[in-house]
Specification:
Layout lengths: L1 E5 L5 E4 L4 E4 L4 E5 L2 E5 L26 E5 H5 L3 E3 L4 H15 L5 H20 L5 E4 L10 E4 L8 E5 L3 E5 L1
Antiparallel strand pairs: 1-2, 1-11, 3-4, 4-10, 5-6, 7-8, 8-9, 9-10
Length: about 170
């Protein structure tokens, strides 16, 4: 199994269990998320509680709480952040480029520098529709993960900066 960690914080942000599609000249990865239900599941095993001596109205101590979560957010314990306005986002991108560029090597660094402007413009065009997430450590100087919904979709897509991820074999 491959896990993708944030190069800046070391937080696990993605794994190969979630296939990605390269967009914006490979600078961004798009990953499909899904809403899933977690918690107790009501299973009817065909038993008759009254025949077993149990009170039909009695709570048998089972917590029937179910929660809908997005699989990627839950799996990697992503933490949602407040939305950014254009000025805040541009400030974050500039700081991110400054922090990430020295960690990249040779061709990877050149590709990142060459294509980051287009990727930034792409994200700026969707800014009002994006949700922002960071990894579990919630550091200020880390990669952001962006989520949005395509028109008419019920499940979100997640967008990652590909160059900000380090592949680790587990």
């Amino acid at each position: 199994m491959l896990v993708y960690q944030d190069l800046l914080s070391g937080d696990e942000l993605l794994s190969d269990s979630f296939p990605y599609k390269e967009i914006q000249n490979g600078v961004l990865w798009e990953v499909d998320g899904k809403w899933v239900v977690q918690g107790a599941v009501d299973v009817d095993i065909g038993a008759n509680p009254s025949a077993e001596g149990a009170d039909a109205d009695a709570d048998e101590g089972v917590d029937d709480q179910t929660v809908k979560v997005v699989d990627i957010v839950d799996t990697f314990r992503l933490q949602e952040q407040p939305p950014f306005d254009k000025k805040q986002f541009v400030t974050w991108v500039k700081r991110y480029i400054k922090l990430l560029t020295p960690k990249l090597e040779g061709e990877q660094q050149e590709t990142f520098k060459k294509n980051i402007e287009g990727a930034t413009k792409f994200l700026l065009s969707k800014l009002s529709d994006l949700q922002f997430f960071v990894g579990e450590s919630m550091g200020d100087d880390t990669s952001l993960v962006f989520a949005s919904y395509k028109e008419g979709a019920t499940d979100p897509i997640f967008i990652y900066f590909a160059h900000g991820l380090k592949e680790v074999k587990c």
